[in-house]
Amino acid sequence: MAVKILSVDDEMDLELLLTQYFRRKIRQGEYEFTFAHNGLEALTLLLKNKDYDIILSDINMPEMDGLTLLTKINEMQNPALKCIMVSAYGDMGNIRQAMNNGAFDFATKPIDLDDLSVTIEKAVEQIRYIREMQKEHTQLESIKGDLAIAREIQHAILPRIFPPFPENEQQLDIAASMEAAKDVGGDFYDFFRIDNEHIGFAIADVSGKGIPAAIFMAVSRTLIRATGIRGTGPAECMTYANELLTKESVNCMFVTVFYGIYNIETGEITYCNAGHNPPYILKRDGRVEAFPMSKDPMVGAVEGIVYHEDKIQLEKGDTLYMFTDGVTEAVNTSFEEFGESRLENTLKGCAGQSGQQMIDAVAKDMTTFVGEAEQSDDITMLVLKRKA
Q1: Which of 196, 216, 326, 355 would you label with 248, given CA atoms 20 to 30 Å apart?
Q2: Helices 66-75 & 39-48 angle (0-180, nearest 10)
Q3: Mean pLDDT of 148-156
């Protein structure tokens, strides 16, 4: 597109001089000149057409001088609009004032058109750079808005109503939280009713961060829920999810999953740990017991894996605490990790507390430990407590 130049000067012969000197660029559509004869006329044109690129303005003019026009142009707050001020050679006071007030450059009369051409080209380069930055800024703002919406969507697909099963509130307490390190994350938790006696629950951590992890998280969560809600056992559910995800995985992404089915009446948990952090059981008397390490690999990494399941008994008052590695691997400003031992000490002090109180206690101790260090990983916790 042509560079639009507004020339403002009360000397009529300048119009002929400029059109003659720049005739080739005008014919080729590189430059487009408009002429005004005082600041007031120029300001009227600027208000009607906001697409001018360069203002070439004399300082000494009737009705509105160039310095006043420069002030009005500054009020438009258009950094891509460049002003080149023109004045007599001896008028350095006004030229300095113009430069201090934001003029891009200046020329002195009689105008050296070769030098003016170089100055205009320099202004054009600046304008192109600024507009490119403005374009990138607009794109970043759009992406930022999209990420905010994606964050809302991601949180919306996770269960957020607590207690989730009010009809079983006297028997069961469930609480959960997820805090992404970026706008969106790869962790998720889930729980859902299978039948009157059984509830499925899961916590998972997708490899990677950001948008790719969030998309893979949504796919994994949907697949596990859709399979588990039919009553499929944990091992079979993970085996089926693994077969589908390995075929669809991009960039070798995978997900670690702890998936279990809880019997509301008996407190028995049938579970499969697919490469996830071993949960803890906080016993009624305050003892903390860790699950054994996972025997099975993460989901979505290797085809043909047959997963296994185990059982564990929750007694009345016992609490199952599940987490992603964003908890234990949270680091402080000295790059020390929060670690399993600090987590276990926090859990020991949570005997008799509700699931939400336990999550709050861990989050508080993590915050104190981390201090001013930036969160480097998604932090997700899921707590299931047998009340009766």
Answers
A1: 326
A2: 20
A3: 76
Sequence letter at residue 8:
V
Global pTM value: 0.72
> Which residues neighbour 57 within 8 Å (Cβ) at sequence distance 6 or greater?
6, 7, 8, 9, 39, 42, 66, 69, 70, 83, 84, 85, 86
Residue 344: C-alpha distances to residues 20, 327, 347 (Å): 84, 12, 5
Q: Whole-angstrom Cα distance, residue 181 to residue 216?
A: 16
How many CA atoms lie less than 13 Å away from 313 in the CB half-sphere?
Answer: 3
Contact 203/268 with Cβ under 8 angstroms? no
Question: Dmax of the chain from CA atoms?
Answer: 99
- Confirm if 150 and 343 have CB atoms less than 8 A apart: no
- 338, 373 contact by CB (below 8 A): no
pLDDT reported for residue 185: 83
What pLDDT does 40 receive? Answer: 93
Name the residue type at position 135: K
The partner residues of 281 in beta bridges, in order of sequence, read: 289, 320
Q: Is 144 exposed, middle or buried (0-12, 13-18, 19+ CB in 10 A)?
A: exposed
> Regarding beta strands 54-58 and 82-88, do their DSSP bridges make them parallel or antiparallel, or are they unpaired?
parallel
The answer to whether the CB of 258 falls within 8 A of the CB of 279 is yes
